[in-house]
Each structure stands twice: as C-alpha cells, then as structure tokens.
Design goal:
The chain is of the alpha/beta class. The chain has helices spanning about 20-35, 60-65, 95-105, 125-130, 195-200, 225-235, 250-260; strands at about 1-5, 10, 45, 50-55, 80-85, 110-115, 135-140, 155-160, 185, 210-215, 240-245, 265, 280-285, 290-300, 300-305, 310-315, 320.
C-alpha cells in the first residue's frame, strides 16, 4: 500500500510478512514444547536444526547427575553433538563417569568436562563410550595416563573458575594413545607459567600441527623471547602449520622469531613499553650480552646493566624484550 505525505508525494508502506512471523512463533512454540525440562537454571540447551545440538550441565552432586539418566533418552537429544559437564569438585568421581558412559548419547563429538583438579577418576570409560568424539576440553582437570581414543583430533587444556590451566597436563597424555590429535589449545593458564616450554619438552611437539595459546590469567606481560627459542628447540626441524596466540602481547622481535616456526602465524604484535613488573630484558640485536637487569626508569628511558656495563635505552626500544632473571 501507499500513503500520501504533506508534499503530495506517495511512499510505499512496508508489508508485514505475516507468514514468516507465524512460522517464527510456531518454531518458538515447538521448541518450548519439545525441549526437555532441565532441573537447574545453570543448565542450558541449545537447538540446532530439528534436534538439540548442545547441552551444558552446571556443577552438581554425583547423585543429582545420576538423577538425569532419563534426560539422555529424550527424543530431542538423539543426535546431541556438544556436551559440557561440570562434575563434582571432589576426588574419585569414577562412579559418576561410569554412569555417564552408560547413558550418554553416542553421537557426542565435542566434550567439555570439569571436576577435581587432582586425583579425579579416569575419563577412559567415557572415551570408549563416545566413538565419534573429535574434541575434548579439560576444564582445570588433569588427564590420566589411560586416556586413549582413535578419532579425537583436538585437545584443549583450560582453566576453570578459580583454577588455572595446568601446563603439565600435556605431559600426562601420550600421542601414541591419541593418534589423531593434531590441534592443541592452552586456555586460561597462569601467565607466569612457561606453557610453551611444557609443550616443547613433550613428545607432542613432534605431532601437533595447530597450536593455540589463548588468554592467560593473572598479570599478563609480553611474551619473553626465550619462549620462542624454547619452541624452536622443541620443534627441532619441523614447522607448525598454524600458531595462534591471543590475549598475550607479542613484541616485534618475538614475532620475528616465531615466524620461521610455522606456516601461518596469528597473533597481536606491537612495540611494547616495558612495564614496572619487568625487571630483566634481552637485547635481541646483541644476544651475546646475555640478560640485563633494569636499574632505573626515568624520562622515558631505561638504564640496563649487562654484565659489568650499564647502558641507556629508550623505554619503548623494540629490540628490548622481557626476560627471566638469571
């Protein structure tokens, strides 16, 4: 339809698409009708096309998890693909894991699981029960040496709530038992932990193609150039197909050192003004000087002692990068 305006012209009025509106309302009605009732407001279900795609079960007791047995038989969960589980934060959750292995839909391809950071039960019963699993995220939970799966392709070691991701977790699992894993993510590790060194010293440095260092916790300082050297030693003569770094400042010299170690590098890079928490630096153009100690900051300049010599630099000199005290 058209309406007249004060100048005598006419303009078209948008026609409301009642069909699309009615279909949307009907879809919302069906979702409300068909979605299984989750017992807690911390639980979430997300629909895909025709079926629920993802379920998130918040932290609860072992008995309340077992009371959900009927949930997994609901028709809308027949092709569930993603599941996030927060198991009780107590050691010895093997009984809960055995129960879940018997009732969870075998269609699950991505599993995120929390629990006790130490002495948790083995996840291997779940690994055996989920033949289509391709992605596993350990939420502040240490893996066990039994962990094995033929098709798992991505492993994420993540922090959760008040616990940082433990870098040593990578040393507890074997590439021989997870032969398809080629992507590894560290998320939410404590910023002072040498997560790159933990990876470089492990046998995973010889098989991982995609490495993602994602957003540490705590006081975040620029990546030390020593981490790039550690990664180079761990990789030996091979290259990563993709190295992605997020949430961590990368000085230009460090980026330059990382570039030859991968086919694709994705990371923030910028000149770094060394903050007050930085006490030692390396001059990337003069590695033979070793590690220098910052003696004084004043007027945008730094006094740095290398061995017996004291030298003065601009505070934002791109060739000065943070280093660990020696």
């Amino acid at each position: 339809p058209a309406v007249a305006n004060p100048k005598g012209r006419t303009r078209a009025q948008p026609v409301e698409d009642t069909t699309a509106k009615n279909l949307g309302a009907r879809r919302d009605q069906l979702i409300t009708l068909l979605t299984p009732k989750l017992p807690d407001n911390v639980d979430v279900s997300l629909w895909g096309v025709g079926f629920i795609r993802r379920v998130e079960i918040g932290r609860r007791t072992a008995s309340s998890i077992q009371e959900l047995a009927g949930l997994w038989r609901h028709a809308s969960l027949r092709v569930l693909s993603e599941l996030r589980l927060e198991l009780p934060a107590s050691p010895g959750d093997h009984e809960v894991i055995e129960h879940l292995a018997a009732v969870l839909p075998r269609s699950i391809s991505a599993l995120e699981i929390a629990g006790s950071p130490e002495n948790a039960g083995s996840l291997q019963p779940l690994m055996r029960a989920l033949p289509h699993l391709t992605s596993l995220t350990l939420l502040a939970r240490l893996p066990d040496a039994e962990l094995a799966h033929p098709t798992l392709a991505k492993l994420t070691i993540s922090g959760h709530q008040f616990h940082a991701a433990p870098p040593r977790a990578i040393s507890l699992v074997s590439p021989d038992k997870l032969p398809a894993v080629r992507a590894l993510t560290f998320h939410g590790w404590f910023a002072n932990d040498d997560v790159v060194g933990a990876f470089a010293r492990s046998p995973w440095s010889q098989v991982i193609d995609h490495l993602h260092l994602d957003t540490p916790t705590g006081h975040v300082s620029p990546m030390p150039i020593a981490w790039a050297a550690s990664l180079a030693r761990g990789l030996k003569k091979r290259k990563l197909k993709r190295l992605e770094i997020t949430g961590l400042p990368i000085p230009f010299p460090v980026r330059a050192a990382l570039t030859p170690l991968c086919d694709e590098l994705i990371c923030p890079s910028h000149a770094v003004v060394l903050d007050d928490a930085t006490t030692h630096v390396v001059h990337t153009g003069k590695p033979e000087w070793g590690t220098g100690k910052i003696l004084k900051r004043a007027n945008g300049k730094l006094e740095v002692k290398f061995g017996k010599d004291v030298k003065v630099f601009k505070a934002d000199a791109p060739f000065l990068v943070p280093a660990a005290p020696t």
